[in-house]
């Protein structure tokens, strides 16, 4: 298996939609099993200069497949454009294989060395221990808890707000 990290392209929308709707992924990213292909396609088409979306693409036996996605949305307000929100998802079958770590390394290199971002923030469900550990390895710290942030498997779930600061 070979893997590359690259910028998203419109042709990736089917694989991205599959990951968003997948059991074991959708519960942690606010995805829905009923999400339509057009929603993922529309999302990619709506990306602007403040959006930076990378995908992890693998090649197995001459077939290419997207197995992970990470994105930054840089704040457009002139007073807060040194900040961005981060989101990530990895295909269930490829979780725990280092793909999330590689995606995070690439997006943080972009954030630190090309976009000159100082603050990156994210939300993560309080029970998503693997994701929390990954974020902490990259310097994210819990800033607070958002109570009853979303519905997850028929119950209200809390979310940590985490952030990483670059020393300036």
Produce the secondary structure layout:
Blueprint: E1 2-7, H1 13-21, H2 26-29, H3 37-45, E2 51-60, E3 63-74, E4 83-90, H4 99-113, E5 119-125, H5 129-137, E6 141-152, E7 155-165
Parallel strand pairs: 4-5
Antiparallel strand pairs: 1-2, 2-3, 3-4, 5-7, 6-7
Can you describe this structure in just a few lines?
Residues 3-167 form the N-acetyltransferase domain. This protein starts with a strand and ends with a strand.
Strand order of the largest sheet: 1-2-3-4-5-7-6
Largest sheet, in brief, is:
7 strands, mixed
Shape: globular
Beta-strand residue percentage: 35-45%
- What CATH architecture would you give? 3-Layer(aba) Sandwich
Helix vs. strand class: alpha+beta
Mean pLDDT: 94
Name of the level-1 CATH class: Alpha Beta
Return the domain count.
1
- Output the CATH homologous superfamily: Gcn5-related N-acetyltransferase (GNAT)
The arrangement of helices and strands along the chain is EHHHEEEHEHEE
The residue ranges in which pLDDT falls below 50 over 5 or more consecutive positions are: none
DSSP strand count: 7
The N- to C-terminal Cα distance equals: 39 Å
Q: What would you report as the Rg, rounded to the nearest angstrom?
A: 16 Å
Number of helices: 5
- In CATH, the topology is named Aminopeptidase
Please bin the fraction of helical residues. Answer: 25-40%
Pfam families: Acetyltransf_1
InterPro entries: Acyl_CoA_acyltransferase, GNAT_dom
Domain N-acetyltransferase: 3-167
Organism: Clostridium botulinum
């Amino acid at each position: 298996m070979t893997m590359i990290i690259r910028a998203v392209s419109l042709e990736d929308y089917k694989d991205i939609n599959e990951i968003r709707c997948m059991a074991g992924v959708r519960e942690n990213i606010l995805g829905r099993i009923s999400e339509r292909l057009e929603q993922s396609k529309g999302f990619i088409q709506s990306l602007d200069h403040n959006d930076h979306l990378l995908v992890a693409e693998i090649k197995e036996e001459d077939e290419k497949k997207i197995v992970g996605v990470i994105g930054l949305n840089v704040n457009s307000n002139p007073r807060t454009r040194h900040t961005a929100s981060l989101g990530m998802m990895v295909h269930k079958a490829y979780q725990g294989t280092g793909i999330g770590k590689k995606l995070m390394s690439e997006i943080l290199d972009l954030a630190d060395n090309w976009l000159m971002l100082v603050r990156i923030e994210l939300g993560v469900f309080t029970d998503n221990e693997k994701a929390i550990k990954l974020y902490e390895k990259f310097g994210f710290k819990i800033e607070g808890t958002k109570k009853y942030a979303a519905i997850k498997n028929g119950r209200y779930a809390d979310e940590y707000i985490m952030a990483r600061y670059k020393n300036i």
